[in-house]
Amino acid sequence: MQTIIFTDATSTVSNKDRGLNYGDGFFTTAKVHNGEVEHWLLHCARLIECAARLGFDELDISALTQAVNDYIQSVSLGVLKIVVTRGEGGRGYALPEQPQTTILLSQLAFPAHYNQQALQGVKLAVSPIKLASQPLLAGLKTLNRLEQVMIKRAMEAQTCDDVLVCDYQNNVIEASAANIFAIDNGRVVSPNLQNCGIKGVYLQSLCGKLEIEFIDITLPELLQMDAVYLCNSLMAIVPVIAIADTEFDLTTSLKLLHGLLAKESAC
Asked: Which of 13, 165, 230, 239 is spaced 20 to 30 Å from 200 by Cα?
């Protein structure tokens, strides 16, 4: 069974909910434009994969889609967050005998600064926090986001728009809340995410338009590439104009990106 809750000022979540107590759940965050969720099918695919890999009951995507459509039909521009938990029950970490999936739907304001960043680019620092390797959970947007909380906390002491995050093997993985890809002599490359990190919905959508190679990338290698970009479902694509002391030319980055996308659109 699944219960859908539309969050508002009067909504409450049980203090016994497994998402609250153990992070036993997952989520996705989507852009809403003119009453429609952008990349909805890819967001559904993410939710389905998370449910399957974490051993949740199968989600009723049809019912969820109808609830979402009703919920956002009057939204011209905003953000939809979908949080899925295993509900209540179970002794300690043990699973409930009859889990009741709980789905929380929330509407949030759209971050206005993303439009400006897409035009002006962003400056990245290198985070002192590194991501641990856990292939069992790699790629899943679970409710266990303490690494990202620590990354954002450390970022408060850094002068930057966002940070570049590596793993303990010093491979580049992602930004604080976005994927990374780069153009290198005409190739489009993105970090290997087999052991940690999340292959976001927007990056998934780009894979349907561009030939992207997922490879191990060290920071020195990334700094030698022609252009670097961040992407996620809300910001779309934002050029990187600096990583630490290394600068990237904004005009060149935008020209390379537009040329690449135009070339693929013509195919």
From this structure: 13
Tell me the two tokens of residue 104: 């929380």
Residue count of the chain, please give it: 267
Question: Is 156 marked active-site?
Answer: no
The letter for the amino acid at 244 is A
Render pLDDT for 71-83 as a digit per residue (tens, 0 to 9): 999 999 999 999 9
Nearest to 29 by CA among 14, 13, 46: 46
Task: Say how many C-beta atoms besides its own lie within 10 A of residue 252's C-beta.
Answer: 13
Q: Tokens 């779309």: give the residue.
A: 236
pLDDT in tens, 115-138: 999 999 999 999 999 999 999 999
Instruction: Tell me 133's DSSP state.
Output: P
| C-alpha to C-alpha distances, 212 to 153, 191, 240, 267, nearest whole angstrom | 31, 10, 18, 16
- What gap in Å lies between CA 172 and CA 192, rounded to an integer? 8
Is 29 an active-site residue? yes
Q: How confident is the model at residue 9 (pLDDT cuts 50, 70, 90)?
A: low
- Rounded to 5°, angle at Cα 122 from 120 and 124: 160
Active-site choice (85, 101, 102, 141): 141
| 174 classed as catalytic | yes
HSE of 14, CA atoms in CB hemisphere, 13 A:
14
Residue of 38, 101, 174, 199 with catalytic role = 174
